[in-house]
């Protein structure tokens, strides 16, 4: 099954890598540095929920979370292979990497569909 | 013992001697190290994707949960972690932009678009979407 899925996984890997390269720097800078340091005022809860409830924002947030998760899982899987030379643990590594990405994707979909 | 039983066939050519490679092979040369560092940016990408999911969960959990999230984010340890992973994500972004023309050959009017132009358009797009994200968040 993994063999037939591999082309799809590589496609999702490159889509997720592009999303992460274009959008993650600015989002992490805002959330991890600018807001905690007080350089930027965090949007109020009400306006954040209002923004997140918009269908386009929901789609945006789903893409922003799920594709980079799959990208990271796929790349980390091959890093473990090459870096630590643990090819014999394929089943475990594949389950852990893609499993985390899948659970994260389902969780994101659930939170986005049931926003207050 | 018959002749057939003594002969073993292997699927691949057997290699009798293999030079053992250390687990630390990637520290021997800078290009190897750079390659492994680039691959390890997946940890930074995974970290931030899960952090965004965490923020979404707080947003879903109501106003008190969201305020708790904002307080957690303000701790010095979290800021240090963010700066560290921001370095990883920037390394991912820059290597990704520079690899793009090698991964996909774009042709316009029968001519190959030069690599430098693709890299440049990646940077222009990056600045444009970053400015748009900041603008949307500031206007909220």
Summed up:
The complex is a heterodimer of chains A (116) and B (140). Chain A has 116 residues and is mostly helical.
N to C succession of SSEs of chain A = HHHH
Instruction: Count up the domains of chain A.
Output: 1
Let me know the CATH homologous superfamily of chain A: Fumarate reductase/succinate dehydrogenase, transmembrane subunit
Tell me the greatest interface: A-B, 57 and 55 residues
Topology:
The complex is a heterodimer of chains A (116) and B (140).
Chain A: H1 2-34, H2 45-53, H3 55-84, H4 90-113
Helix pairs in contact in A: 1-3, 3-4
Chain B: H1 3-6, H2 30-61, H3 63-73, H4 76-103, E1 107-108, E2 111-112, H5 115-138
Antiparallel strand pairs in B: 1-2
Helix pairs in contact in B: 2-3, 2-4, 4-5
What does this structure look like?
The complex is a heterodimer of chains A (116) and B (140). With 116 residues, chain A is mainly alpha-helical. Chain A has a single domain (2-113), classed as 3 helical TM bundles of succinate and fumarate reductases (Up-down Bundle), CATH 1.20.1300. Chain A has 4 helices and no strands. The radius of gyration of chain A is 17 Å and the shape is elongated. In chain A, 34% of the residues are buried. With 140 residues, chain B is mainly alpha-helical. Chain B has a domain at 3-84: Up-down Bundle (3 helical TM bundles of succinate and fumarate reductases), CATH 1.20.1300.10. Chain B is 71% helix and 3% strand. Chain B has 5 helices and 2 strands. Chain B has helices spanning 3-6, 30-61, 63-73, 76-103, 115-138; strands at 107-108, 111-112. In chain B, helix 2 packs antiparallel against helix 3 (63-73) and helix 2 packs across helix 4 (76-103). Chain B is extended and about 75 Å long. At the A-B interface, helix 1, helix 2, helix 3 and helix 4 of A face helix 2, helix 3, helix 4 and helix 5 of B.
């Amino acid at each position: 099954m993994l063999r037939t899925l591999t082309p799809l996984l590589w496609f999702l890997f490159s889509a997720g890598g592009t999303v992460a390269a274009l959008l993650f720097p600015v989002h992490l800078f805002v959330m991890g540095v600018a807001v905690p340091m007080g350089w930027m005022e965090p949007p109020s809860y009400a306006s954040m929920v209002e923004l997140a409830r918009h269908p386009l924002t929901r789609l945006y947030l789903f893409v922003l979370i799920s594709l980079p998760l799959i990208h990271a899982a796929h790349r980390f899987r091959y890093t473990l292979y090459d870096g630590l030379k643990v090819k014999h643990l394929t089943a475990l590594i594949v389950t852990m990497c893609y499993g985390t990405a899948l659970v994260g994707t389902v969780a994101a979909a659930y939170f986005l569909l049931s926003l207050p | 013992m018959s002749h057939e039983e003594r002969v073993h066939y292997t699927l691949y050519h057997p290699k009798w001697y293999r030079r053992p490679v250390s687990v630390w092979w990637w520290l021997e040369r800078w290009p190897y190290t750079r390659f492994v560092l680039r691959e390890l940016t997946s940890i930074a990408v995974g970290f931030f994707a899960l952090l965004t999911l965490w923020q979404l969960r707080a947003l879903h959990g109501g106003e008190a949960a969201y305020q708790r999230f904002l307080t957690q984010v303000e701790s010095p340890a979290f800021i240090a972690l963010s700066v560290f992973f921001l370095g990883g994500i920037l390394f991912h972004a820059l290597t990704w932009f520079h690899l793009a023309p090698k991964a996909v050959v774009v042709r316009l009017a029968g001519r190959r678009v030069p690599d430098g132009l693709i890299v440049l358009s990646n940077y222009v797009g990056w600045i444009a979407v970053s400015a748009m994200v900041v603008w949307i968040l500031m206007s909220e």
